[in-house]
Amino acid sequence: MYQGDWKRGKASGKGKFSWPSGATFEGEFKSGWMEGFGTFTGSDGDTYRGSWTSDRKHGYGQKRYVNGDYSMMIT
Q: Which Gene3D superfamilies does the entry link to (predicted)?
């Protein structure tokens, strides 16, 4: 389910998408895609915070695990 800004019937701007599994993405959308900067939280509690393009991690980001460990990523 998507909550946030819309443009021409598609998620665009700032918003939050939630999946039935409990996973969420909060950040920027463009033409219905996760696009820009945002945070994905998996159903296991791990998070990835960084840049996205066309629903994929792109550029710099940080993966933080539920146990407190983290890693810097370039994708």
A: Histone H3 K4-specific methyltransferase SET7/9 N-terminal domain (2.20.110.10)
Give a three-class secondary structure readout of 40-54.
EECCCCCEEEEEEEC
Half-sphere exposure of 24 (CA within 13 A, CB side): 10
Give Cβ neighbours of residue 50 (< 8 Å, ≥ 6 apart): 37, 38, 57, 59, 60, 61, 62, 73
Could you read off the pLDDT tens digit of each residue along the chain, which spans 75 residues? 999 999 999 999 999 999 999 999 999 999 999 999 999 999 999 999 999 999 999 999 999 999 999 999 988
Strand partners, 62: 49, 72
| Model confidence, pTM | 0.92
Q: In total, how many domains does the chain have? A: 1
Provide the 8-state DSSP code for 68: S
